[in-house]
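[Q] Does anyone have a clean structure-token version of this?
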Amino acid sequence: MKEKILVIKLGAVGDFIQAGGPFAAIRSYHAGAYITLLTSFPFAEFAAKSPWFDEVWVDTRPKLLNLTGWLTLRSRLLGGRFLRVYDLQTSDRSKFYFKLYWPNEAPQWSGIASGCSHPHLNPDRDLMHTLDRQAEQLVMAGLSYPPAPDFSWVQGNIFRFELNGPYAILVPGGAKHRPAKRWPIDHYKKLAWHLNKVGLKPIVIGTAEEAKLGDQIIKDLNKGFNLAGHTSLEDLFLLAKGATYVIGNDTGPMHLFSVQGCPSVVLYSHASDPTICAQRGSNVTILQRANLETLSVNEVLRVLGDFQLP
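[A] Here you go.
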């Protein structure tokens, strides 16, 4: 009978993308095992297509007083008969999942749960970059250092978007509760105008809730597309392959574009620390100002010039 392994990674987009290397390392170490991923609904379908997992479970994330939800999750964990669990989420929620095994014996567990068999013991783990932190956690559990995230397995096409000619991607959105992480929309509008002027079609991506931002950015242009709310994760990977470059705030999709090797410019304010969460890839530039309103369009254009702006 195959060994059964559980990987916990609930999200969000950037965190999930950065876990691509650890996912591959776990699959390599447990080459003959049956590996299950416990994740959030937005990533389940995408993860099921990957070469890393044999099965994907959706975590319903029961709330504190939802006894039925907790008992259902506990029953599922016990029924999985896992030899080892890799908690790559390492949140208060996911480490509590370790306690759901009580009074039964818990499986081997890599994470930060008190009493687990393979703890990540570095007291400064919260000051490490996400990729370095996850890599050290797995090395402490006996695995090799994870490779760079590789999403070359992503398949599909974006013919329906009819993107004829060169284009650049703009990512003007981000977490609603952290507005300081957003470059002003007027700056994006000016940037889109310059891109359009040199023959690059601005393509805006984001959530459906951010569609209005896209409308504002491209409304006065002869060319440009607002795809906010109309793209899957697969679409974003495929868009990255054809993009001249990507410019965006410190938000999840920028991790996706960066790992694809697309020339990427990521805009940071005081609200996040690139030493801990910066996008990594072969062609990434980080621009940071305490207040993003003070970051001018010309400064961004100068970086794009270094990328050989047409």
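[Q] Thanks! Anything notable?
[A] The radius of gyration is 21 Å.
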